[in-house]
Design a protein that fits this description.
single chain; alpha/beta; 5-stranded mixed sheet; two-stranded antiparallel ribbon; 7 helices; globular
């Protein structure tokens, strides 16, 4: 249950119990929700399920990742057009399902980029990337939408330009296990190629702010703390 931080912690604990180390962590769970409601520590559920829960799961498993491991986060081109506004994640008064989803996908791209930066800055040989798997009506990611919209998602599954579940899985697997992506980190993939994300997803200050505020929302210590000037140095390089 990714609306419950304790359930995420239990998942991490169970993972540590059955495995002596991870070579791959895929943050793929997510959803698009019809109604806005607050969950967990008083956070809007789309942001909590799509971003905060994967952030927490990753933080809980950082010390369980083997050298050379990969962390892959499923984002979406829906992040394009969104801007980071952390004030909205505690408010559902003007909730829009699609706007909340786009905002959470921007958070996914920023999270994956910041994780890559912090892993490198702390000397860990683990990569982090995000990807756009394609628009996949068959994935049922909008199953919580009203009935007519859910039916529409099924109908447009045959429209050119949409992707099948198998297509989306292939996109994810390419980033997760392909030899030619092993040395990539901090990148956004689409069509099995690294591509520039939206300008808002390339803002190092926003990425740092999201990282720190996410820890505060969850009431945990900041994972992989680094000096405040390291991002600026990277940007200037």
């Amino acid at each position: 249950d990714f609306t419950d931080p304790d359930a995420v912690r239990e998942l991490a604990a169970a993972t540590r119990d059955w495995s002596d180390g991870l070579d791959l962590l895929v943050n793929n769970a997510g959803g698009l929700f019809r109604d806005g409601r607050l969950v967990g520590p008083g956070i809007e559920q789309t942001f909590h399920v799509n971003h905060l829960a994967p952030y927490l799961l990753t933080a809980e498993l950082l010390d369980h990742l083997r050298e050379g491991a990969r962390v892959v986060t499923t984002a979406s081109d829906a992040h394009r057009g969104a801007s980071l506004d952390l004030s909205q994640v505690r408010d559902t008064e003007d909730y829009s399902g699609m706007a909340a989803y786009s905002h959470s996908k921007l958070a996914n791209v920023l999270f994956a980029s910041e994780l890559a930066h912090r892993l490198e800055a702390t000397g860990q040989r683990v990569t982090s990337n995000s990807l756009h798997p394609g628009f996949i009506p068959g994935s049922q990611f909008g199953r919580f939408l009203p009935g007519p919209l859910t039916s529409l998602f099924r109908l447009i599954g045959a429209v050119p330009g949409t992707s099948s579940v198998a297509d989306g899985a292939a996109e994810l697997l390419h980033v997760a296990v392909a030899d030619d992506t092993a040395d990539h980190s901090g990148e956004y993939f689409s069509g099995q190629q690294p591509v520039p994300p939206a300008p808002a997803a390339r803002d190092p200050d926003a990425a740092t702010r999201l990282w720190r505020h996410s820890a505060e929302m969850l009431g945990i210590d900041e994972p992989l703390p680094v000096g405040s000037d390291t991002r600026a140095a990277d940007s200037a390089a």
